Amino acid sequence: MATLDNDALNAWRQRLGRLGVWSSTEGYSAADAAGYAKRLQEWGYSTLWLPEAVGRDPFTHTAHLANAADALLFATGIANIHHRIPGVMMQAANTLAEQTGNRFILGLGVSHAPMVEGIRKLNYGKPLTAMRDYLNGYDQSFYMAPPPSQPVPRLLAALGPKMIELAGDLADGIHPYWTTPEHTAQARQRIGADKLVCVEQKVILTDDRDAAHETTRQALAMYLGFPNYRNNWLRLGFTDEQIDGFAPEFLDAVVVWGDVDTIRARVAEHHEAGADHVCIQAIQPGTPGKPDELALAALAPS
């Protein structure tokens, strides 16, 4: 099993720091996305986490952005294992790590049946078995180019107990999405002290409760039918009625809104619960698919 030793993990923990940004750049042109990455670097964020869905390829896009922001770290949040065979995924990760001077982290996930089977027309299978087989295949793949000077960390988009345990055995940590500080505490306890826990947290910088809740409802809409997320929310104690009815207590648990201090307090809750790194997804009120650069500037580490 190809996982990093404790010294390497601690070095990455220091490089990642406490705060990064999770963000799609689909609303930007390629040139504007590069400018956005440079601004994140200037504001003091350590890492830009890029999703994979039906937009840009996250690996080639990372190569473009990394040339513009020459100190920023980049991570896939997440790369879909059904889109690439293990050896091809390893090729992309190693190539990016070598060419960026070890500024790349590989986040992997099983995605969701509606995405994999519905959109890509691929077989979804059993998530845990698929991920275990994939990681073993990754470790057994050949790579004949000069390797990066440091191994690429790989994190799993793990929500449930079994996937978190698999990450503890065959990966370097986890990257949970749409979760809460309570989940962070549970995940840290399950995966142990040494592995990386890098959580995503959606934030809305507004004091308008109605606007925040409406934006959260819009952001949640496509995710309600994904069992991976729903099952996790149920494990956290929410009911189907609260989830489907967009109950205020559910909305406030998964998305933090308010002023800068309120948002920073939620981020601190994740750290106190055991997160090494929190990547904030700053959402514009009324426009859940577009990053709020004013919020990111206001929340910047620097």
The CATH topology comes to TIM Barrel
Query: Could you list the spans in which at least 5 consecutive residues all have pLDDT below 50?
Result: none
**Estimated helix fraction:** 40-55%
Oligomer: single chain
Structural class: alpha/beta
- How much of the sequence lies in strands comes to 15-25%
Estimate nothing, just give the exact number of structural domains: 1
Largest sheet: 11 strands, mixed
Number of helices: 14
Structural Rg: 18 Å
Overall number of strands: 11
What does the average pLDDT come to?
Answer: 95
Order of helices and strands: HEHEHEEHEHHEHEHEHHHHEHEEH
Distance from first to last alpha carbon: 38 Å
CATH class: Alpha Beta
Assign the CATH architecture: Alpha-Beta Barrel
CATH superfamily: Luciferase-like domain
Shape verdict: globular
Describe this structure in words.
By secondary structure, the protein is an alpha/beta fold. The chain has a single domain (6-298), classed as TIM Barrel (Alpha-Beta Barrel), CATH 3.20.20. The chain is 47% helix and 17% strand. Strands 1, 2, 3, 4, 5, 6, 7, 8, 9, 10 and 11 form an eleven-stranded mixed sheet that branches. The protein starts with 5 loop residues before the first helix and ends with a helix.
Architecture blueprint of SSEs:
Layout: H1 6-16, E1 19-22, H2 30-42, E2 47-50, H3 58-68, E3 73-76, E4 79-80, H4 86-99, E5 104-109, H5 113-119, H6 127-139, E6 154-156, H7 161-170, E7 173-174, H8 181-191, E8 196-205, H9 209-220, H10 227-235, H11 240-244, H12 248-254, E9 255-258, H13 260-273, E10 277-284, E11 287-291, H14 293-298
Parallel strand pairs: 1-2, 1-10, 2-3, 3-5, 4-5, 5-6, 7-8, 8-9, 8-10
Antiparallel strand pairs: 10-11
Helix pairs in contact: 2-3, 4-6, 6-7, 8-13
